[in-house]
Amino acid sequence: MSLVVVKVQSGMEDKIWNAIVKRLTNTETADSQSLLEQWLTEDESHAQGYQEAKVVWELSALIQPDQPHVSFDQLQPQLIAKTQVKQLNFWKYGIAAALSAAVLLAALFQFSQDKKHNPSEEWVTRKADAGKMIQVNLPDSSKIWLNSGSEIRFHKYFSAQKSRTVQLIGEAYFDVAHDEKHPFVVESGKLTTVVYGTSFSIRAYGNEMNTSVAVNSGKVGVLIADTKEAKVPVMLVANDKLTFNRNQHTFTKLSVTNSEVNAWTAGILTFEQTPLNEVFATISRKFNVQVKADPLKYQECRLTAKFQNKPLKEVLRTLKMVMNLQTKQIDHTVYVEGGTSCSNP
Amino acid sequence: MQLNATPGLKEINAKSYDLAQFESLYNAIASSLQKYAFYWVKDVESANAIVNDVFVQLWFKNDKPDQIKGYLYQSVKNASLNHLKKEKQLPVSFIDQDELTLIADLTMPLSEVVTESDKLSFLQNTIAQLPQRRQIVFRMFRLEGFSYIEIADLLQISVRTVEDHLGKAMQFIHARAKHLVNEDVTEL
């Protein structure tokens, strides 16, 4: 019996508190008002209780939001990093590359060691895996096409920097949004390319001897570290291509056709007197396969060829025809044997 | 003392914002949205991920919504319901935590509660101890400034239930925080 009494009281208290809140929130009804008025007059402690509730309620307007579980610092990289990354199916676009006049094999270049990397700064990395080409839209609305096995890094506060700096390993084609106040800088090994709004292509794969910059439109300046061009840039205009040999520390500048600059973004694979070992590396990146070949055996061999959206099988067949290379593909590995002697190219 | 302020939410209605504004928007409302997402999905990690995605989407949205607060809540709701659909769970039965009070005692000893800001943090701690759903209702009303009807809609409960939650919340808060009311405060 007593239990029932407690319940009734508890229910009564709930009703009173509903009425109090209605008054505090200006949503009183005639019923709640008369209930509250009656309760307030019942006892002095009731009036005091209401006063306390009112003060606490008003104080509660000042409560601050809690700390989010995930801090803004964790969210922020995604606001820049999640620039729409379009994955292009490689097979659909065929093979792609805009090759510089390349020579020899190269040691891996120490990308990270070249950078004066400040650990307190945070960088965002975008990578095109083997067999993939991706388009990265930067926050400043510049566009970058990343070729297979290439990687770019940029500051997570990209647009807030004095210069729009992008670090590149591999090959990329840039279409840079014009912004004179914020020069667009591409760091690729020894070459630093400064632009103000133009389109150009840079190739700087770690395992290739040559690094190159080719310009489609506009004008860019290229600084070459450890040479006398380290301070005074080499200026390039449309259809200029600068090729830097990392071993010899020399560079050449020559004219290219406009379409050569970004041919690879359209799926065209070009080899021009390209050492065979670099051809293998390119094939490996483009088609996401491993190429097993004796590097010493082919180091004197060079290939000149152009493939327009051709599948791997076609490329391998051409190698057989031109250089008498025997190839066998097992799953994701291509074994290369034979071939004519290349001692007299 | 300025009353009836909704802290942090004043600057939200800008049509476009820079990173700093976006950050203050995030800090003002993300915690509430995470609680709101948790209300639906009952999983902290999923709730955080949902809120994260909603903010990333907002950042890249070309047309910024007029009512950002309402937009964010609605987006979190949609994402949460989609999440539940994917998990093949139906949001029919909530684990009713209403009568379970958090045990974590963050309250300061009364003797230390002297200044106005001490009072506020004591009150915040008290609110943090409210049962989960009641706490969401209270925060939505008091911090975000939603109306009864908006809260009822967002939580898919009746207006009557919203009222009950607020009444019980005040009862709870009053019982624990009434000592904050001393003479000089009462005079306000």
Automatic annotation (TrEMBL), chain A:
Domain Protein FecR C-terminal: residue ranges: 269-336
Superkingdom classification of source: Bacteria
Domain FecR protein: 129-220
GO molecular function terms listed in the Swiss-Prot or TrEMBL record: sigma factor antagonist activity
Keywords annotated in UniProt: Membrane, Transmembrane, Transmembrane helix
Spans through the membrane: 90-111
Name assigned to this protein: FecR family protein
Automatic annotation (TrEMBL), chain B:
Pfam families found in the cross-reference section: Sigma70_r4_2
Example GO molecular function: sigma factor activity
NCBIfam families documented for this protein: sigma70-ECF
Annotated PANTHER family: RNA POLYMERASE ECF-TYPE SIGMA FACTO, RNA POLYMERASE SIGMA-70 FACTOR ECF SUBFAMILY
Taxonomy, superkingdom: Bacteria
Protein name: RNA polymerase sigma-70 factor (ECF subfamily)
Family stated for the protein in its record: Belongs to the sigma-70 factor family. ECF subfamily.
Domain RNA polymerase sigma factor 70 region 4 type: 123-171
Keywords: Sigma factor, Transcription, Transcription regulation
GO biological process: DNA-templated transcription initiation
Taxon lineage: Bacteria, Pseudomonadati, Bacteroidota, Sphingobacteriia, Sphingobacteriales
